[in-house]
Amino acid sequence: MYQQMIFVNLATDDVEASKKFFTELGYTINPQFSGDDCACVVISDTIITMLLSKQRYADFTKKEIADSTKTSEVLICLSAESRENVDELVGKAVAAGGTANDDVQDHGYMYGRSFDDLDGHSWEVVWMDPAAVQG
Q1: Which secondary structure element, helix H or strand E, spans residue 105, and what is its range?
Q2: How many CA atoms lie within 13 Å of 65's alpha carbon, on the beta-carbon side?
Q3: What percent of the chain has pLDDT over 90?
Q4: Can you tell me the mean pLDDT for 32-47?
Q5: Sheet holding 6-12, edge to edge
Q6: Taking the model in full, what pTM does it have?
Q7: How far apart are CA 65 and CA 114, in angstroms?
Q8: What's the pLDDT score for residue 73?
């Protein structure tokens, strides 16, 4: 069965620093699709983040590139296997130079936290109780 993939393209000020940040979170870089002006971050078999220099990003759009430290252009949400995994990934992001957002969401059946990466892109990490999802 075909599994659709998602490619999240993000503009970055520093491709090398962003590569280091995401590898410190535990993700890998696919060198086949990476270069001086871009990095292919493998989050899972179906989720890829392309970190593009602003010059390279501009090749794909005629719109102004948002300053993600001041403007929210996207909220990226990743699932986690447990509450502990939520805290672990956010902890790794902060240790790698990201910024934790203070808005912990704890609804019992759902737990989430968020962080901003080096360029200010917002990432949410959420765990949901499988029993609650099955309903």
Answers
A1: strand 99-106
A2: 19
A3: 90
A4: 97
A5: 6-12, 47-53, 38-42, 28-29
A6: 0.90
A7: 23
A8: 87
* pLDDT score recorded for residue 135: 57
- Do 50 and 15 contact (CB within 8 A), yes or no? no
Beta strands 28-29 and 6-12 are unpaired
Task: Write out the two tokens for 115.
Answer: 């962080």
Residue type, 72: S
- Sequence-separated (6 or more) residues with CB below 8 Å from residue 86: 80, 111, 112, 113, 125, 126, 127
- Count CB atoms within 10 A of the CB of residue 9: 15
The 3-state DSSP class for residue 23 equals helix
CA gap 16, 35 in Å, rounded:
10
Whole-angstrom Cα distance, residue 2 to residue 12? 31
Enclosing H/E stretch for 70: none
